[in-house]
Amino acid sequence: AVVSTQSGHYGRGKKLSNLVDDGAPDEEEEGPPQFPQPTPAEKQEIDKRTIFVGNLPTTIKLKALRKLFDEFGPIDTLRFRSCAISDPKLGRKVCMKTNRINENGLSKNGYVVFKNADSVTNALAKNGTVLEDRHIRVDKLIKSRDETKQESTCSIFLGNLPFSVDEEDVRAAFGECGEIDYVRITRDKETNLGKGFGFVKFKDSSGPSLAMKIKDHVEVGGRKIRVQKTKSKITLGNIKTKKEKKAVAKKKSNFAKNKFNKKEKSTDCDSALIPLL
Questions:
Q1: Mean pLDDT per 10-residue interval, the chain, length 277 residues
Q2: Contact status, residue 67 vs residue 83, Cβ threshold 8 Å
């Protein structure tokens, strides 16, 4: 077996056993310790050099993760997150160091911090790479407003998912709707079980439209799920000008006032229906 991508093979001719856990304890993080804690400005600069890698096999090692991305430039640090641990009483760090991982966990996530921000864009080419029959998700932490809007346009929201849901089962359920960019399931950080909802992002905006046509017939894990189109969420954080911030804040304030007034009016009408004793 080999590790493959949508456009070809990674590590052609190399055994998969070289890329997965050999039973030896694996560190949770690789790279120099960072002390003291970075300032907000420093953290933002680090985030610009960081990629998120989701839906990784639980058996993959840090050295394999480094090998997968070192072609895009020098790597500063790597770390795994969202691993289901077998003994919460010992704490996450101890369990990771002693390889006490819950075998029921389907996947784990990782972060790769490059030394240069330019490496991030190039590393996105690994999105969709298949490792042990799992399509990994590669994404950047900081996105522009246009990128966030495009992501929303091409995505669907899924509800009523089984807690034991697997990303690959969701991908298979919506494969007929178009090429899928990634599947994201929201999971509990301790147990790695799903929380009942998630998202599917397609390569283009036709995917959500096709998904809405089959929504009444889609089942995952023997369970009928809820499918909705996502809406672009505009917050004060991703609006640049003071004028825009003020307009959105006013809109939210008016919405809250109208909602309160409607509630008050409804209460008055209900009290008027109560007969006087």
A1: 37 37 45 71 95 93 95 95 74 71 78 97 97 96 92 95 95 96 90 91 96 95 94 48 64 63 49 40
A2: no
83 vs 92: CA distance, rounded Å? 9
CA distance 42 to 258: 41
Q: Which amino acid is at 242?
A: K
Q: Alpha-carbon distance 259 to 182, whole Å? A: 37
Instruction: Give the number of other CB atoms < 10 A from CB of residue 235.
Output: 10
User: Is residue 165 within 8 Å of 219, Cβ to Cβ?
Assistant: no
Contact 109, 54 (CB under 8 A): yes
pTM metric for this prediction: 0.69
CB-based contacts of 76, cutoff 8 Å, min separation 6? 31, 49, 113, 114, 115
